[in-house]
């Protein structure tokens, strides 16, 4: 039986991966454990390690790091602290593979620790572009990884052009789509009436995170978003941002500048978040969930600014700057435009079974650790 160690640093990555992780854990050839790190352990972000525990997955370790003040320096120091802590966890767990998702510092720290312990690294969502620091971190993790689970054919081709071995790059689809549309969904009016909204007025789901290179302008940018919603007279469900540089400024705006018809949450359980996404009249912000998951419901998305720059788009995505007038105009047009078809380039909701198959069957011997460029 192969031991797989998944490292989770935020509510977001665990929510995306939960269905796939359960599928991996259910495979008789695999033994899965999860490391809960970073924001999972912070009360300001909902102590979401409890959701991992409630899922029935085994938590191998909890790794707390400094998250405040939310600056680039704090993020960089935390990567160093987590690298050291992950070495201790991996020495104790002795996994056959470390599984990582995406582009956050927690994943980079885990990849660095794993390669120095001769543990193969399997990376999900590599090969994607975004044009911010996330892209640099994502590609760095890919170059430290030995097995790749790309979401799309385009991403697979890019990984191969980066020099990764073609026989080690699989297209699995995005894990965040697994189980997304399986269960019965409540109606829009049921969901929003229960939340206290006026169902005759439109409701947006708002997720806006800071971009490291633009952290000093984060407060100004979220004010523009809220002003656009106010001008358009939309109601909204807003989630507070991750603990990245610039997030304190965004939180301060939400805490001090109230908007009529806005309900703000630190965290929503995955099932509630998906239900709201499915029936929202639009999503507004810069979250990857707008780029990837929302298309499965045909939810219109106003994707703002540079954070998701160059990622593959579905037909539901409208790119805009963080400009109040532009946001208000587009929200007005969405009200009279038919909802896009629910077609999603990021997969078919079967990523978990593909991940489990490749993790249990792909050779993980000494040969896979001898990485060289394939060109």
Description:
The chain has 375 residues and is α/β, with parallel strands linked by helices. The protein folds into 2 domains: 2-178 and 349-369, Glycogen Phosphorylase B (Rossmann fold, 3-Layer(aba) Sandwich); 188-334, 3-Layer(aba) Sandwich (Rossmann fold), CATH 3.40.50. Helices cover 39% and strands 17% of the residues. It has helices at residues 11-26, 49-54, 72-93, 105-116, 133-144, 153-161, 188-194, 218-232, 247-256, 270-279, 288-291, 324-334, 351-361, and strands spanning 2-8, 30-37, 59-63, 97-101, 121-124, 147-150, 169-171, 203-207, 235-239, 262-265, 282-285, 301-304, 317-320. Strands 3-2-1-4-5-6-7 form a 7-stranded parallel sheet, sandwiched between helices. A 6-stranded parallel sheet has the order 10-9-8-11-12-13, with helices on both faces. α4 runs parallel beside α5. The two termini are 34 Å apart. The model has no long low-confidence stretch (mean pLDDT 96).
